[in-house]
Amino acid sequence: MSLPIQSLLSADQLQSVLRPVGEARGMPNAAYNTEEAFRFERDHLFAPNWTAIAFIDSLQAGEARPVDFLGLPLLITRQRDGAVNVFHNVCSHRGFQLVDTTRRTNGLLVCPYHSWTYALSGELKATPHIGGVGVHNLEGFRCADHGLRPVRSHVWLGVLFVNLDGKAPTFSESAATVIDRYRRLMGPDGESLLRPAITHGGASIDVNCNWKLALENYLEAYHLPFIHPGLNSYSPLDRHACEIISGNCAGQVTASFDPGLDRANPLPLFPGWDPERLATGEYPVLYPNLLLGFQANHVFAMIVHPVSSVTCREELMIFYAGDAANDDCYLGERKSNLDAWTMVFNEDIEPCERMQVGRQSPGYTGGAFSPVHDVCSHHFHQWVAKQYLAAGSAN
Ligand code: FES
Ligand SMILES: [Fe+2]
Question: Is the peptide bond before 288 cis (omega within 30 degrees of 0)?
Fold first, then answer.
């Protein structure tokens, strides 16, 4: 097997990640701090899987939004009928980046270079002067052959995912176990009741670390007593357990979530939520880049956007059951909920950034895992190593 980035890390190093958790090493430093690994992961880890890129509810009808996919230009559009599309953000004429900032449109996208014009569905509608001044059509040139190039997409839990290489099993197949598990936990109508909070609903956090460290930190509760003393006081480490949910999903489950039913104006619960599990909170990561939190009265999703090999941006959105997302009578509850979560996520910044600094050290060669607390982190490392190895065997 030869890895396309063989000079940076070896198959032996990857094999050592696959060993049982008590013996395994983590992914080598080069996977965290080199542009080569970043590009490699874009093409061999993100592109073949379903990557989260945006929250669907934040897109207005008529909107066109450019998205940077680890350096590749993509474009999300929302048609007036609500349909959402993802395209490569490049004009079919001379390859001009079609949209450079988010904008509301009248339903048409005009390329600034020579004014070729596209519908938000991606159809090429006009090619001004293509056949000479005042001649807007050309014999043998069919607009139907030159529309924007679509990217395969899917929406789940208000999150827009793309499969860039178009070859993955459908999202519903890829995440079947995860979808089923949370449908059962939230109840059959849970997903349809999810609404993003219109106030105090989200946050964006820039972290100076490789995207994988943000996931690894979320995958373990070992650090709770040391980094999150507040959280640990109401959701202590000994009430958490690691759970492997599927080949591409793992996370923490806590048995001490407080739905706040004794509060003056408690947030409504999802009506179909398993009544035996009101005190359960689940915090899975759907690989490669979506952190989730499920509780009886709210769900949150955090997209981890890889920005460079050593930086990422976390984008959070909190969802409630129906009107709890917009009713003013829950404004205080929504605010205190967002405040509590952002405090936790802000506390996680320093550990992630200092793990990144540690990845510069030749004295660190993947480290070790606690066979009790790091089971999910190791599961993720294994998943990453398998993506690398699969890319190598395909060469
Ligand atoms: S590159 Fe877009 S119209 Fe020419
Ligand atoms: Fe944390």
Answer: yes
